[in-house]
Design brief:
- This protein has 173 residues and is mainly alpha-helical.
- It has one domain.
- Helix content is 72%, strand content 0%.
- It has helices spanning 39-105, 108-137, 142-168.
- Helix 1 (39-105) runs antiparallel to helix 2 (108-137) and helix 1 (39-105) runs antiparallel to helix 3 (142-168).
- The longest helix is centred in the middle third of the chain and has 67 residues, at 39-105.
Length: 173
């Protein structure tokens, strides 16, 4: 069985395409000339490559959004549990603080106001930290955006090459 140099599981042997005299197979004994691809072939390749590139970009965007969504869902669940527990604890501690401060000041409405303002201040600081964390991490897909920029550069280069090929071809009228 003859060796097929294009099979991926076999190592490439450049001598496999040569005849018994060590020269390339062919009537003239000269190496085979590889014809330039036609414009139609170039456009077909460009279309195929572009389609494959778009499919890969969509797959990348889906993977990034899935990863971002999973991270946000996990963070949201953790935040929800923390808020629920903190609410129960804050209510108990708030009631304790109001009663203790009310006895010290002998004025319960003033104690409730002071405790409420302190708790609101703490909630503001914690909330701002959480929002800053989400902004820092971002909701976008940076890899996809960068890849799309690279693809746009590639597509422009390919179109310039096709135009150059079209203008270089002599017209047969």
């Amino acid at each position: 069985m003859a060796s097929d140099p294009y099979r991926p599981h076999q190592p490439y042997d450049p001598r496999a395409a040569h005849g018994p005299n060590g020269r390339p197979d062919g009537a003239s004994g000269r190496p085979f000339a590889t014809p330039e691809p036609s414009i139609g072939e170039l456009l077909r390749r460009l279309s195929t490559d572009t389609s494959e590139l778009v499919r890969q970009e969509v797959a990348l965007a889906k993977a990034e959004m899935r990863r971002t969504g999973t991270t946000l869902a996990r963070d949201g669940a953790r935040i929800g549990v923390a808020v629920g527990l903190a609410l129960v604890g804050a209510l108990a501690l708030g009631a304790f603080a109001v009663l203790a401060l009310g006895q010290l000041l002998d004025n319960y409405w003033l104690a409730a106001l002071i405790v409420g303002l302190v708790l609101l201040g703490i909630a503001y600081v914690v909330g701002n930290a959480a929002v800053a964390d989400v902004k820092r991490r971002g909701l976008g897909a940076p890899q996809t955006a960068e890849s799309l920029r690279e693809d746009a550069v590639w597509a422009r280069r390919e179109m310039r090459e096709v135009r150059r090929e079209l203008t270089a071809q002599p017209r047969a009228d």
